Amino acid sequence: MSEEILKIINLKKYFPIRTGLLRHQPLRAVDDISFNVRSGETVGLVGESGSGKTTAGLCALRLIDPTAGQIIFEGEDLTRADFKRMQVIRQRLQIVFQDPLDSLNPRMTVGEAVAEPLLLHRVVHGRESSERVLELFQRVNLGPELIGRYPHQLSGGQRQRVGIARALATGPKLIVLDEPTSALDVSVQAQLLNLLRDLQVEFKLSYIFISHDLAVVSHLSDRVAVMYLGQIVEIGPTDVVFRNPRHPYTMSLLSAIPGDKLLDERMRIVLHGEIPSTLNPPTGCRFHTRCPFTQPICGTEPQSLRPVEGEHSVACNRVFEDQVPAFWVEGGQGKQLIGLIDNAQAFLREQRQTK
Amino acid sequence: MIDKNENLLEIHNLQTHFFTRKGVVKVLDGLNLTIKRGQIIGLVGETGAGKSVTGFSIMRLVRKPGEIVGGEILLNGRDLLKLTDDGIRQMRGTEIAMIFQDPRAALNPVLQVGRLLAQVLYHRRNMNSVQARATALDLMRMVHISDPAERLNSYPHQLSGGMCQRISIAMALACQPELLIADEPTTGLDVTVQRQIILLLKELRDKMGTAQIIITHDLGLAAELCDAVAVMYAGDIVEIAPVEELFNRPRHPYTIGLMRSRPLFGDRGRIPAITGSVAPFTQPPPGCPFHPRCEYAYSRCSEHKPKPFPVGPEHTSQCWLLDTAI
After folding, report:
1. pTM, full prediction
2. What is the ipTM for the molecules in this complex?
3. What is the CA radius of gyration of chain B?
């Protein structure tokens, strides 16, 4: 088992929200979560908006300061590091944001944007930087002619490649990817996911992959943590969690994905209502207000993660075992779709040969 | 009852061009599409495929520098392109309604949602304020908003994205239009909320017989909600078929490419992505617009643009590979 590069222990982030003239109430964006990331591994964070995934990602880099808890990166507690020390550490700890149009300086060419971290961290000096920028551009498959362009002159996919090049510039060990592909078209998304995977192997990177798209997360992540209202409700190896989910929230997320025609409508778990406010989270299990299997006890007893099997842990007082229809048929949707696509491709190839 | 085989909307040879400083951009150049009563049809494709422009053209909401320069849009046999501005204004909302991707941006932020709904009812159905308020309440119930009476007094910013989308659907339905155009109705919403919107749109069709055009980039959404799916690329419908037929027997290389680009559950291998990106509208490639990215392209593809070839029941595909004449 490879070493842990990042350990997050009992992380909390409360934002004070004004509720009256002098009154403040904490918004518990992240409320006591713990997980770790091993070197070379991808951990996916999934959940609806408002579940605290992005806040957790930002805390991991200390781009916002956590209210409580520890962030141990390569053996060093980041919550104790001062500003100068953090700057040094951030060479090895980088982030890629959702929409690079918002995160890139519109007045800098994208070449300058990629050179900036190199010069800031004194990775290279002066003239060498342009060579390094060229290398980075090539690595993320961007043509050198784009170096002098401004962010608005690039397409969404190209901009996101710039964001990745910029994150790679200082030779990081861990990159937080915050919804890196959700603004992109599927064909561009596929190209970027392939790129991220190649870079991970080449540079032995660890990723924290934040996304609300479960298929994308399942594709890239080794392990996945499902978040609801600031807490992790289920965590484990991706295949195990998605194939055999034990928390009703994970089940409902999986069964809500549009497009699975094989899924009988009656087998779906449809959640009613919307995610409650983190200002006044429900008592007891936070999911009990929307849970289709809720029992009286759920409203009073808070739940914490308990191991089910191996690395798979669930925060639910019921352990679901085959009580819920299995909607992950082994190789089901995937295999069948691949079969159909293969047939269609074979047909086209045949046609091509006759021309 | 509704005769499902009767055509509600027929689009013939629609041409919507944009007159920019860099030249004329022919976003739609000869689009044909037919929608039957009560049918849900999906327009699927990536950014820049012309899906939204199609929707806006039907509503006659194309703005300068865009202009509809040719073709016919027949609703119940009447050409919408020949209507006067007044005529088209009467038609919008009452016969065809449209909802948009960002529901919060589509709702007037300074009016309570009850007032928003009531406005439609005063102007379009000549109701007085008491009737309008009661009907607004019914509409809110129809789109399953909890505590509708209380919500009538909320402003859009006080509601969640999913709730705002329900309100815009309620507004669109206020006059019981025969056709609803939904431009990316679930994009930006959480999966669990997406599911609620999908169920709602299905219910509208089943209960009220509202035909729908669902504009989306999400093949999964189209697979689930639509009766027929049209795949658009560079302003053209490159393949169209009933939903099961399309997903079981895709026949256009672009459709297949799109299907393969989606990451699949349980598959961690490389995604066989379509290479390259869409050519800019200002410099369309000669011949088939998809040929520079197509792995099956041959000499003919770069010379002439293919026409739709029939490949199955109600299934056509614009690809030279499917031309049986040669």
Report:
1. 0.87
2. 0.82
3. 21
